[in-house]
């Protein structure tokens, strides 16, 4: 197993390099970089969110030049009338006075040392910015994963054991309806009902903790923390419960129908022994295989709309705003960190495979 782990760790190097190289190459052709963002703000063209999403000042990309009234030219649309020396200072400030390959090599070297630099538009280092947003994403990600696995796996097993029963039918109906309702729409419904909308004002609508959190006792802090998390977690839970429950049920049904289960029952083993000593470790492999994607989704992509609706400032919202503002240090740093986390979680999943089913031996297989 040690040799397998070493090979997987070594393979992470070219994988991370490829991810960053492709992303960096795509960015070179994306209109509306940070220089254009500053120019758009100076000329009054960058106030709206739609302008930022559409490329800020409308720059068509590097390599095109636009002539001003004085005959001078600029690579950036909207820069007419601005001092060319000022434009050059902007390019130097953002590092665009260097060739792309040199910028990419510098970025990779810094990232290997976990030096992510500073945000273009915030007076703070990228790593400090990420650490500042982590509590929200950790709170949403960890609790939704725990809730979905702790509740969905036993429910899926029970549904598999009672396949076709009334319990299976009505729980499947509830799960399908819950999955069909988008999480953000359910979140809005919860706000209307329980967060000061049109009915009750039972739950807060902003932040992870109350303003007086520091003055609360330890048990009051716990209550206040989960009081703020209740509605966001309920909004995120719908799709997570449905997917994991049905996946668990189908996996267990496939295993229960196999010949080795019939043989185990013929030997006189109890249903509980057959289920947890034979079926469980085989059926759980597919659940474990989906853990890396579920982990990354819960921490980053899956919580963007929920963070916005409930005014939670987490990594999902940070990543979206950084892409819109073309804040490349934050964009590439979050991409690098989450890619590395995904690869490490994937390796951890393989190790859990061997814990669930000791018959699996990765060292005998090609990586």
From TrEMBL:
Q: Which GO terms describe its cellular component?
A: plasma membrane
Which gene codes for it? yejB
Family membership, please give it: Belongs to the binding-protein-dependent transport system permease family.
Q: Which UniProt keywords apply?
A: Cell inner membrane, Cell membrane, Membrane, Transmembrane, Transmembrane helix, Transport
Q: What is this protein called?
A: Microcin C ABC transporter permease YejB
* Record domain ABC transmembrane type-1: where: 134-349
Tell me which NCBIfam families the record gives.
PRK15133.1
- Subcellular localization(s) per the UniProt record: Cell inner membrane; Cell membrane
